[in-house]
Write a structure and sequence with these properties.
- The protein is an alpha+beta fold and 396 residues long.
- It contains 7 helices and 7 strands.
- The protein has a 5-stranded mixed β-sheet with strand order 2-4-5-7-6, with helices on one face.
- It has helices at residues 13-21, 26-70, 75-235, 247-258, 283-301, 331-334, 354-365; strands at residues 242-245, 266-271, 279-282, 305-314, 317-324, 369-375, 378-386.
- Bound molecules: adenosine-5'-diphosphate (ADP) and magnesium ion (MG).
- Magnesium ion (MG) binds at residues 292, 295-296, 354.
Length: 396
């Protein structure tokens, strides 16, 4: 009998291990197993003794059988005796066996009970341990929670401090940004004001210049208007060719038309007799006559001198004198000046037709006359026109 653990099917290695795991010490488990083994050994010894007894009976039986074989007559008695003995032996063996079985069953039950108890104890212990562990865990959790809350409170305080600092910092940043913005705004305002002032000054200057320009334009327009009026007067375009006219109007319009050609160094003097009557005339053609005479006088004087336009009356004639302070002309030239194409001017400047045309207009068309007096510094062309309408000439 080396190992009887197999006789305890309810206490396997696993059971032993489980018991250990459930809190039984190794010693307790070993003691429990040793107790079980000792009981089993006891039972086995008893069983062995019963078997020995049975063997003895068998031997007796064999002996008896031999004797019976030797003594035939007592055969039946012997056989009966043997049967009885055998029955006794069998009964005894059976009883012993049953007893052993009962004991084993009992031991098994006990062992089972022990195991159950051990299990229950182990379970209880385990539960206690579990409860303890749970309690410990709860305590740990509670303390950890308290710790965490402490940490949380601390970090919350820290966070609040950080937030306060951050708020202070951001307020400082905001204040500095506001100050910068205000500075920039002030500078921009100053620049804008400067630009505005400059613009206003320029505007004032411009409006002053504008005023001057408008005045100049008005002057020019006035000049143009009077020029246009003079031109109309001079050309007599919108008038009848033959009419009663004031010679002063004709002279004035002619002077206006020629003002651009008369150098600024030549002074124009008008000596009008405003009592003169209007005379019947071909006004546009008379203007052409004045133009030719004034043009020659200005040409004779060059850049400086005095041009005198004088009117007067000589009985039934109106007299117009065109006088200049030029060099005059010698008699041999004076005799030829009314010839067509006679000129003393360079080629391209004179046509020699001015005085020829003037003659035709005054003498032929108006039945007037032209006289010339010329000494150096004083040359006079005198035109005389009749006050009453002469009979129109048929020759021109
Ligand atoms: N006021 C004047 N003074 C001096 N010479 C004059 C004057 N007017 C006319 N003459 C002379 O008479 C010439 C003829 O005049 P005109 O018939 O008008 O032709 P043009 O002027 O083309 O020469 C002139 O070239 C000039 O010699
Ligand atoms: Mg001329």
């Amino acid at each position: 009998m080396n190992d009887n653990t197999d006789l305890l099917p309810n206490l396997s290695h696993e059971d032993a291990f489980e018991m250990q795991m459930r809190g039984y010490s190794r010693r307790q488990v070993d003691e429990f197993i040793a107790r079980c083994r000792s009981q089993i050994r006891d039972l086995e010894q008893r069983l062995a003794r019963s078997l020995d007894d049975s063997e003895e009976l068998r031997r007796d039986l064999a002996t008896a059988r031999q004797q019976a074989l030797g003594a035939k007559p007592a055969h039946e008695e012997v056989s009966e005796r043997i049967a009885q003995i055998l029955k006794l032996a069998d009964d005894e063996a059976r009883s012993q066996k049953s007893k052993a079985d009962d004991d084993i069953a009992k031991q098994r039950d006990e062992a089972q009970q022990d195991v159950d108890r051990a299990r229950a104890e182990a379970r209880e212990q385990a539960e206690r341990m579990l409860t303890a562990a749970q309690e410990q865990a709860e305590r740990a959790i509670t303390s950890a929670r308290a710790e965490a809350e402490k940490t949380l409170t601390a970090s919350r305080t820290e966070a609040e401090q950080t937030t306060t600092e951050a708020r202070k910092k951001s307020e400082a940043v905001l204040a500095s940004a506001k100050a910068q913005a205000k500075k920039a705004l002030d500078e921009a305002t100053a620049r804008a004001t400067a630009i505005h002032d400059g613009a206003e000054r320029r505007l004032n200057l411009l409006s002053t210049r504008h005023g001057e320009t408008i005045k100049r334009l008005t002057d020019i327009l006035d000049g143009v208007s009077s020029l246009v009026a003079a031109a109309k007067q001079y050309t007599q375009l919108d008038r009848a060719p033959h009419q009663v006219v004031d010679v002063h109007e004709l002279l004035d319009s002619t002077l206006v038309m020629l003002s651009g050609k008369i150098p600024s160094g030549i002074r124009v003097v008008k000596e009008y007799d405003l009592s003169l009557p209007a005379i019947p005339a071909y006004a546009a053609e008379l203007n052409q006559a004045w133009t030719n005479l004034i043009d020659n006088a200005a040409a004779a004087m060059g850049q400086t001198g005095v041009l005198t336009v004088r009117t007067g009356r000589d009985r039934d004639h109106v007299v117009v004198d065109i006088c200049d302070t030029g060099p005059g002309m010698p008699p041999e030239i004076r005799e030829r000046i009314f010839e067509p194409f006679f000129t003393t001017k360079p080629v391209g400047q004179g046509t020699g037709l001015g005085l020829d045309i003037t003659w035709r207009i005054v003498v032929n068309k108006h039945r007037g006359d032209i006289q010339v007096q010329s000494v150096p510094g004083d040359t006079r062309f005198r035109v005389r026109l009749p006050v009453t309408d002469p009979a129109p000439s048929v020759s021109d």
